[in-house]
Amino acid sequence: LKTHLPTHPMPDTPATPNSHIRIWQQNLYRSGTTQHSLLHSPHAKDWDVYARIQEPHIRANKNTISSPKFYAIYPSTRYSNPESTTRAVTLISTSISTNS
Fold it and tell me: According to the model, what pLDDT value does residue 48 have?
C-alpha cells in the first residue's frame, strides 16, 4: 500500500483572520417589518450569510424581501410546486465569491 502525501499540506490555522464566515439564523414569523429591520440594520454588514431565514415575508410574486447586499437562495421546489409556501430562504452576502 502506497501513501501519497499532499504536496501542499493544509495549514493548521486560517490564512487570514477574515477567512471565517459569519452566519445568522432567525425566524421572522412572516413579518415584512422584521425582515426589513434585519436587512437594513447597521449590523447587516457584519454577517456573510443569513442562513435559513425561517418564515420569511413572501410577496404576492413569490419573492422575498432582500437588499442589493445579498443574493436570495430559494428551495428548489419553489416553481415546481407553486402551491407550496416557501418556509425558508438563505441570503448570501454579495461580498462572497460565487465563482467557485
Answer: 87
Nearest to 86 by CA among 74, 69, 95: 74
Torsion of CA 89, 66, 39, 21, to 10 degrees: 50
The whole-number average pLDDT for the span 3-13 is: 42
Q: Nearest Cα to 48, choosing from 23, 77, 12, 30?
A: 23
Q: How far apart are CA 37 and CA 86, in angstroms?
A: 20
Beta bridge partner(s), residue 92: 49, 71
In this prediction the pTM is 0.69
Query: Tell me: the pLDDT tens digits for 67-97?
Result: 888 889 988 888 788 788 888 999 888 888 8
Q: What is the DSSP letter of 99?
A: -
